[in-house]
Design goal:
Blueprint: E1 11-15, E2 27-33, E3 36-47, E4 50-57
Antiparallel strand pairs: 1-2, 2-3, 3-4
């Protein structure tokens, strides 16, 4: 196993299987920003010089909660 330690500024991207949903990002992965792991999503664009656009978000944990602090991000129904 490698002794490599991830550090701020590192980015890892992977080709995303869209499974028939063209709204899903073309590439997904993560980046280390200020010592925290963030989720990265990129969509391929073909408009002039712009090739990709995307966003950086808190990691997805599948439960509607912020993975870094366990606080629910859901809006109460009242």
């Amino acid at each position: 196993m490698s002794d490599y330690q991830e550090k701020d500024g590192d980015v890892s991207l992977f080709v995303n299987d869209k499974e028939g949903n063209e709204n899903r990002p073309d590439l997904t992965g993560y980046a280390w920003i200020d010592g925290e792991k963030k989720r990265v999503s990129l969509w391929e664009k073909n408009s002039g010089k712009l090739r990709y656009s995307g966003r950086v978000e808190e990691p997805y944990n599948g439960g509607g909660r912020n993975a870094s602090n366990g606080v629910s991000q859901e809006i109460p129904p009242f």
